[in-house]
Structures are given as structure tokens and as C-alpha cells.
Amino acid sequence: MISSIRYAFSFLTILPLGGKETSSEKLGGASAWFPLVGYFLGGIYLGIAQIFSGKVAEPLISFLILFMMIVITGALHLDGLADFADSLGGKNREDRLRIMKDPHKGSLGVIAIILVLLGKILVIYFLIAQKQFLGIFLASGLARFNLPLLLFTIP
């Protein structure tokens, strides 16, 4: 159990708690702990909001939380988003796969990242402005409930 939790943290964050080698078996066992990782991260974001609330401007708090989200996850999800968005310009399956494997980011990928980051910072700002700090915590954990479902339902 402990090794699965450590693997879940290593898979979803930059925290060096376990091996980075990926196997279906390890990932399957660790995926049950993804929400725990999400709530841990949400606790960090919640802490930032509570520590700085009333002391620092709300837009700056929003930026700090977004910055921490990017740093602690290694921006891996943003890279995947950019690859996917770039692949939408492909003409066929082979072309789309080739585009996704290309390490360079195209205009669709950059636009997708910008839109997602703008959306996130707006939501974070709204939650902070409304003093809905619990929403920051819950969103992070609830978002990671979807990952195990996707792992076991998509071929």
C-alpha cells in the first residue's frame, strides 16, 4: 500500500518519492491513490490562499497558486495538452501521432496552454475573491478521481 501511494505521488508530481519507471501493474495499483495526491496538492494550494489572504492582493495569490500548480506537477499535463491541441491540425491518424511525438510546440498547442492557464487563474481568483478557499482544496482532489476511471475505461 505504501509503495502504491509513493508511486502515485511520483507519477503525478515532481516529488521524488518512488520510482519513475512506468508499468501498467504499478499504475493500476497507484491510481486508487490519485485522489489522495490531489487532496494533498489541494492542501498546499489552500494553505497558500489562507496564508496570503488579506495580506497580498488577490490576483497575486491566484498567480502564486497557479505557479505552484505548474511547478509541483512539472507541467506534464500542459505538455500533453499542447501535444493534443497541435495534433488537431493533422490530416490523418499517422500525421496526428507524428505531431504529438514532435517535441516542438505549434500555435494550436501554445493557444491551448494560454487558454487553460487563463481559465485556471480566473477560477482561482474567483474562489479567492469569494473566500471559497475550500473550493480550491476540493477541486484538486475531485479532479484526480477521473484519472483512475479513464485509465480503466479507455483502451
Describe the structure.
The chain has one domain (2-153). 25% of the residues are buried. It is mostly helical. The protein is built from 9 helices and no strands. The model has no long low-confidence stretch (mean pLDDT 89). α1 packs across α2 (24-31) and α3 (34-52) packs antiparallel against α4. The protein has helices at 2-12, 24-31, 34-52, 58-73, 76-87, 93-101, 107-129, 133-143, 146-153. The radius of gyration is 17 Å and the shape is globular.
Tell me the layout of helices and strands.
Blueprint: H1 2-12, H2 24-31, H3 34-52, H4 58-73, H5 76-87, H6 93-101, H7 107-129, H8 133-143, H9 146-153
Number of separate strands: 0
Beta-strand percentage? under 5%
How far do the termini sit from each other? 26 Å
Using the CA coordinates, give the radius of gyration. 17 Å
Dominant shape: globular
Helical/strand content category: mainly alpha
Q: Name the helicity range.
A: over 70%
Please, how many helices? 9
Poorly predicted spans: none
Whole-number average pLDDT?
89
- The topology string of helices and strands comes to HHHHHHHHH
Features:
155 residues, mainly alpha, 9 helices, globular
Give a concise summary.
The chain is mainly alpha-helical and 155 residues long. It has helices spanning 2-12, 24-31, 34-52, 58-73, 76-87, 93-101, 107-129, 133-143, 146-153. The protein starts with a helix and ends with a helix.
